[in-house]
Amino acid sequence: MNDNKVTWVGVLFSFFCAVLIGGVWYLNNRLTQLSEEYVGLEQRRGELDQTILSLIAQKKVFSEAFASFENFSVNAASDDVTFYADLQQVVRQARGIEILTTQQRGVRDGRSSYALTLRGDYYSFTQILAHWRNLRTTVRVAGMTVTASRTPETRGEVQVDVIMEAIVGR
Question: Rounded to whole angstroms, how far apart are CA atoms 29 and 126?
């Protein structure tokens, strides 16, 4: 019976050692899996942190842009005649530009528009655009076509068909 007890203790000890070795092996494999998963999650966290920083920067840009829109104002012309007079005054002050035709396009949806055909020096025309931009009335170039002169007498000149718009009568 003594041998039987020793045998049982030996079997139980062997079983215990096998369970212990199997447990250590299982826990080691599980630790390796969790370690790899942790590394992947850390990489993902780094990527998400970069994304968050990028989104915060974009939010700041959009917030600043919307804040500047809140300060933006449109200066409407009191009437159609005032709008045309402002346009014409700038052209008359320019050197080397003449008005060939003017056509009132009318007022639609609160916006007045004029189609002007101008001829003259290209650089003088660009100065006219800059001066129109600085008018007390907010204006918009709705359309523009620039054609170079083809005759030798008018070399260096351009003909510009431009449609100008402004909000009138508020």
Answer: 75
**Mean pLDDT for the chain?**
87
Phi, psi (deg, nearest 5) at residue 6: -65, -40
Alpha helices in the chain (DSSP H): 2-70, 80-93, 122-133
Q: Which one-letter amino acid corresponds to residue 26?
A: Y
Tokens at residue 24, please?
Answer: 């250590």
Alpha-carbon gap, residue 44 to 46, rounded angstroms: 5
Whole-number Å distance between alpha carbons of 120 and 90: 14
Chain position carrying tokens 């974009």: 58
Taking the C-alpha atoms of residue 163 and residue 98, their distance in angstroms, rounded to an integer, is 16
Q: Is the pLDDT of residue 149 over 80?
A: no
**What's the pTM?**
0.53
Phi, psi (deg, nearest 5) at residue 162? -130, 140
Residue 60 phi, psi (nearest 5): -65, -45
Residue 140 has a CB neighbour count (10 Å cut-off) of 14
> How far apart are alpha carbons 106 and 89 in whole angstroms?
20
| Structure-token pair, residue 46 | 């780094």
Which is higher by pLDDT, 116 or 74?
A: 116
